[in-house]
Amino acid sequence: MKKIINVVILALLLGANLMAAGKEKIRMEGSTTVLPIAQITAEEFMNIHPDVVISIQGGGSGVGIASLIDGTCDIANASRAMKEAEIKNAIAKGVDPVAHIVAMDGIAVIVHPSNKINNLSRAEIKKIYTGKISNWKEVGGPDQKIVVLSRDVASGTYEAFNKLALNDEKVRRDALLNASNKAIAAAVEKTPGAIGYVGIGYITPQVKALTVDDIACTRANVVAKIYPYSRPLFMYTNGRPTGAVKRYFDFLLSKEGQALVTEAGFVGLK
Amino acid sequence: MRKNKDQIYQKIFAILAFSSLLFLTGIIVVLFKEGLPILDSVSIREFITGTFWYPTYDPPEFGILPLLLGTLWVSFGALLVCVPIGIGAALYLHELASYRQRAILKPVIEILASIPSIIYGFFGMIVVAPFIQKVLDLPTGLCALTASLILGIMAVPTVCSLSEDALSFVPKSFREAAFALGANRWQTLTRVIIPAAGSGISTAIILGMSRVVGETMTVLMVAGGAAVIPSSFLVPVRPMTATIAAEMGETVVGSTHYYALFAIGLLLFLATMALNVIAEVISRRYRLKLGLGR
Hints:
The complex is a heterodimer. By secondary structure, chain A is of the alpha/beta class. Chain A has 10 helices and 11 strands. The radius of gyration of chain A is 22 Å and the shape is elongated. Chain B has helices at about 1-35, 45-50, 65-95, 100-115, 115-135, 145-170, 170-180, 185-215, 215-220, 240-245, 255-290; strands spanning about 55, 60. In chain B, strands 1-2 form a two-stranded antiparallel ribbon. The longest helix of chain B has about 35 residues, at about 1-35. Chain B is globular and about 75 Å long.
């Protein structure tokens, strides 16, 4: 009896190995912002190339980059550029990180739909977020306290907004921390005095996206880099991609792949 | 042959039982190893009494006092909710509820415990926060009060079922003796049963507190998340757990910020462990007092 069970287990193990053999594996890990892009393009890529298996994990940009440095993933998704400390760490471990810009994202400034304000200048947004303006009447609105919503300080969206909109000045301490784009959109929807910022894909009909210096956050304006709060999204590889990873990048950066990027709520490069 | 088998099984189950110990040791080692390096960058005093949490700026600031106070305020508020409801429910279940009411109420309260915390978070964000915002005319309903309410409800099952256990451990002879001395039902309850179950009930409260302190998802969603020292229950606060959950994924592994987050985790762990140890000590004493042994 025992022998039979052993044989069965052995056969199953062998079978599983055989099935996986002949398939190339790509492991992706990192930013939750880039995750939808990775998922939609990986699915389509695996449909076209059944000989490749792509596994995708979230975890955050920092986690993905750490995995790339440790060699436990092939592609690190990142919503921010690698930091100096990370690059140093990578080189020390013999990893040569190569950045690929895979999409653009526009960071929209959103308010409650009942808000009469349609446009803010970059200076006004900066003053609101750094704590110099706290009431809507100071920017031409009603006498109402501004509820400032921001992202957690480690998120890529926060970092991009902080650099693009605040020139690295500190966000006011009483800003509300939200852990995701969706959470910001949901909170703005429910809060008449709120202001928040989200990726372009997260603008819902229940919130109003403001124009910044009279420039709307549209895909065209983001691609043309006219909209002031535009940022690139990255995937990192160790050295130039080869094999299945290269085929994946070829697909991702093709017209078809970039159309999927747009479908995922971001701005395709083409 | 038989004996051999017995021994093997015994070994297997011993390994299973001791594996928890292994996990606990692993967690403690990691928390200390990854948390203590923060002391190379800031002193304990700066870390705990600093009022600015700007971990990603240059120069970074790692003051966790606002986060510490956020956790304390929210936990205190949650206690105000879960203690009266939990103990009240336990007393009703134990003293007054009919058999049929018990059969319905007990499972219902236990279902409350099995709801995932993210659902509580949703409920708080979509229903409670807008309601509180409207009723109290606040700029935002995502504040310490909302978080306290939701966390309090989440801790009710812990407090209620443990308190009820404590009440049911009181030997029947206590009650009979009280009645025999001519005490009425109310007197028996307040002067005999509750004092006898008192330490069991305190254990229930402490364990409920420990649940509240460690809760993460819900506070991340409903507490608002402003890293300021709370001035009232009506302002947004950011508890320690929410900070870790929100920032850990994106931070640079091995950076000072990373160590700071682990250090916060270490503090949380020490706090909940202290609560659990206190609860254990109290409950042992009280079992001895009632003559129940260990």
